[in-house]
Amino acid sequence: MILFWLGCACPNRAELDYADTANWICHPDIPDVCDEPITLHTVEADGSITTSTVEANPDAAVDCFHVYPTVDLALKRGNADLRDLTDEERTTIHQAGLLAQECRLIVPAYRQATLGTYLTRERKAEPCFDVAYDDVESAFEHYLAELNDGRPFVLVGHSQGPTSGRGCYVSASRGRSTISSSPPTSSAGRWGPRARRFRPARPRTRLAVW
């Protein structure tokens, strides 16, 4: 049974339409989880617990384009289907929610490779990572064209997030000088031919966070 799960294919899929706000976890034009206050419980040195609330900053002058890590733990090779974004929303808030104090969070939903994809041979895994790569690159291109409006931005993510987000470096380096000269790294980086061919532009300013 396990061998059957790991053998499932990564089908070719049509490009996601990122003009549709349903394909975003956090988007500046709709109310979403990134707008909600976060309750913090802090354990002090004396053992007492204090509670505070963190609010998103509606006047933040900087954007944070966040690419969340692997949350689809299915053991079959394939890509997330995005029908239920509960885990993606929860992970986004746990990992990047506090950034909303200082920046406007921009978070695309993307058809990331499942956990089981990491357990399969490179040749069979590559198409799955390509789907994720294409989604994030497409989302970022849409962000630059339609949502950025000249605002400074930071790229944020880890694990599969920065691997799929390598295309953001390529997109942003066209006519810009705000991207780190060091590309993101991840254990997933050994998959995906385009990731291996990637060569970042040499910038003047370092703004990427991975």
The gist of it:
The protein is α/β, with parallel strands linked by helices. The protein has six helices and six strands, in the order αββββαβαβααα.
The main sheet comes to:
4 strands, mixed
**How many structurally independent domains?**
1
Q: How large, in whole angstroms, is the Cα Rg? A: 18 Å
Uncertain residue segments: 1-6, 175-210
Shape: globular
- Percent helix: 25-40%
Give the SSE order as H and E letters. HEEEEHEHEHHH
Mean model confidence by pLDDT: 78
Supply the number of helical segments: 6
**Extended strand count:** 6
**Order of adjacent strands in the largest pleated sheet:** 1-5-4-6
Beta content: 15-25%
Structural class: alpha/beta
Cα(first) to Cα(last) distance is 36 Å
Explain how this protein is built.
The chain has 210 residues and is an alpha/beta fold. It has one domain. The chain is 28% helix and 15% strand. It contains 6 helices and 6 strands, in the order H-E-E-E-E-H-E-H-E-H-H-H. It has a 4-stranded mixed beta sheet with strand order 1-5-4-6. Strands 2-3 form a two-stranded antiparallel sheet. Strand 2 (38-43) and strand 3 form a beta hairpin. Helix 3 (122-147) packs parallel to helix 5. The longest helix has 26 residues, at 122-147. The N and C termini lie far apart (36 Å).
